[in-house]
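Amino acid chain:
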Amino acid sequence: MLNTEADSIFIHVAVAAIVNSKNEVLVALRPDHVHQGGLWEFPGGKVEPGETVLQALGREIKEELDIRIDNKSPLIQIRHHYVDKSVLLDVWLVHSYSGQARGMEGQPVSWLSIAELDASKFPEANMAIISALKLPDHYMISGKFDNYDDFKNKLVAALNKGNKIVQLRCKQISDAEEYLKVAKIAEKICKQYDTILLLNTTVDVFNGSDADGLHLNSQALFEFNKRPVGDNKLLSVSCHNIEEIQHAEKLGADILLLSPVRETSSHPGVPGIGWEKFSQLVAQVNMPVYALGGMKAADLADAKESGAQGVAAISSFWLDEK
C-alpha cells in the first residue's frame, strides 16, 4: 500500500538479508510471546536516535548473531502498516561477514534456501523481501529477431551471458497463435537455463502457456481491477507515474518497471525522469522495482543507490539488437 504520511510515524528498522555461497539466507525464529511471534524473520532491529541505518545494522547484527558485516548493498525499503504499529524496513543484502553466526539471544537461527522460502512463515511485511531475494539484478526484454531459429540463437546467447529473467515482447508479431509458438520455444529454453519467463501478451494467450508470469504495459494495466493471474504466477507491470504505480499495487503486482529513467531511441523527445525522481517514486513502492529506459549493465550501481532491484533493458541484454 502506498503511503503519503511522513516517515516519522514509522518505526525505522534496519534489516539484514545475509546470503551465503549456497544461495541460502540466514533467518531467526521470533519468540512466541512477542509481536509476530512464532514466525521466521530476517535479523535486525530498530534504528536508535542519533544512529544511521548502517550503524544500527552493524550493532544489531553483532548483538544478535555475533558477526561483523563486511560487504553489503541496499536491497529494498518497505513501509508496512500492522494493526498495532507501522514499520519502515530498511533492508540490506549482506554478501560477506566475519565470524560464526549464532543466536546470541537464545533465538533459533537457520540457513534456508532462497528458492524455497515460504512467505506464509514470515511476517506479512517480509513478503517483498522474499520477492527481492528471488529476483536477479538484470531484467531482459526480448528484442527483434528474423525467424524462429534467430530467436532461439539470440535467446540462448543472452542466457549464456547470465540473464535470469526474460520478458517476451514481440512487437513484430500481432497474431496470438504465432506469439504462443514463440512463447513455447522460450519456455523450453528458459527451463533449461533456470530462467524466469514473463509474457507480454493478453491474459487469454498467457493462460495457454506454461510461463512463470504475465507482464502488463501501462495501457493494459487499467483494463483490470483485480489481479489477472493466480498467486502462483508473477505479475510484472510497466509504470511511468504515481497513478499507474498505485493501480499496480492495487492489482498486487510483484515486479514494477519504472521508466523512462533516460531518454531512449525508441521514444525520442520524451525526457527521462532522472535518478532523483526515480528514487522519490521508488520510495513509495513496496515491491521490487527495475529501472528502465536507456539502461545498461553499468548503471546497476546507480540504480541500486536509487532504491531499485536492478536494471531492465532490451538493447543492452538482447544481443545484436539493432
Observations:
- The chain has two domains: 7-134, 138-313.
- The chain is about 25% helix and 25% strand.
- The longest helix spans residues 176-192.
